[in-house]
Amino acid sequence: MKQTVLTLTEKKQHGEKITMLTCYDYTMAKLMDSAGIDMLLVGDSLGNVMLGYPDTISVTMEDMIHHSAAVARGIQNTFLVTDMPFMSYQVSVEEAVRNAGRLMKEGRASAVKLEGGTEMAETIHAITKASIPVVAHIGMTPQSVNAFGGFKVQGKTLASAKKLVSDAKAVQEAGAFAVVMECVPAKLAEYITQKLTIPTIGIGAGNACDGQVLVYQDMLGMFEDYRPKFVKQFGQVGAEMKKAFQEYQQAVQEGTFPAKEHSYQIPEEIITLLENES
Ligand code: KIV
Question: What percent of the chain has pLDDT above 70?
Fold first, then answer.
């Protein structure tokens, strides 16, 4: 079944969990779509896991469009959300709407995601007024890593918990149709989830959220530069891949690959004629 803003909203109303994974390319998109994942996120985490940056700050609009369009070509039913990269929506509301439009037109996204709460309400409102669905992202927002002084759990004090509650309400009020909550204590995420009518998608926010998202390289055990506490590895694909690479290396060196069944044949007499002519 094709997922839309309506089917995703209904999932919350019916108490059905929403699944979301990050995705950055065509092949993975086809696999995740056929597995029935509800939402794919072309996250700016591609800066870390695809491009090797230490954070998401350097990711550009062109990076996001390039990967979003590739994912869009691989999906049929999954709902595609693409991240607005750092400084593509913070300078002015007008620029934010224009860039959100580019992610839809050139990146073929079905919605955009941007980081920030109350301070982004006007921007979210303007983007949704342009008929572009918005997913908000509050809590630990990686584009603010320098302002936070590191990747830290948010909402642990009364003041910061209150700020998160008002951020969640503000983005809903502004028109966001869903909100990602990252690195938020489970009980606080549960409280916020109960207060909102839009779905909450958690990452490091406990299991009471309406849905969950993970970076696919993390959940497949492919990315070992660092492993946040909230990551569960649902497979050891990285180890499997390394084993296959080593077996390939050995087979080529030993001359056992390619074998006859991997090679194209030619009649012997053609080779004989070739040799006779030279
Ligand atoms: O960029 C990303 O992958 C994200 C998720 C961590 C939610 O924003």
Answer: 100
